[in-house]
Write a structure and sequence with these properties.
The chain is built from five helices and no strands. By secondary structure, it is mainly α.
């Protein structure tokens, strides 16, 4: 039920950080030399495993880390993920290959944040 008159909700304090982060990603996407797969992997690693995002390759191979952590880290890389969409004929299209990592990033990050919001954590 809506309470009238509607009131303005204050912007969260982290809005500036989010805008800066999104602008950084946008500027990298404008650069034609950016490897989009690595960009997506870095973005997801920074969101989910910030302590390993700086040296993702070493962390995935580190036998001192639990197997589940290493598997979760590898799931941040679009190259290690497969879905039925990847086996369709359009997946071989060069234009699709350019945006595929970005679609994958959107799907993965949306799923992660939906899980966080519904888990009753402090982020909800």
């Amino acid at each position: 039920m809506a309470y009238l008159p509607l009131r303005k909700i204050p912007e969260p304090e982290v809005s500036g950080v989010a805008r800066d982060w999104l602008e950084q990603i946008a500027s990298e996407l404008r650069d034609e030399s950016t490897d989009r797969r690595l960009l997506c992997r870095r973005a997801l690693s920074e969101l989910t495993f910030p302590q390993y995002s700086g040296d993702w390759e070493t962390a995935v191979e580190d036998e001192g880390l639990p197997f589940a952590t290493r598997l979760a880290l590898s799931a941040c890389d679009p190259a290690t993920s497969r879905s039925s969409r990847n086996t369709t004929p359009t997946a071989t299209n060069a234009r699709f290959q350019k945006v595929k990592p970005l679609l994958w990033l959107c799907i993965r990050s949306t799923a992660r944040w939906s899980a966080v919001r519904t888990s009753g954590s402090a982020c909800s």
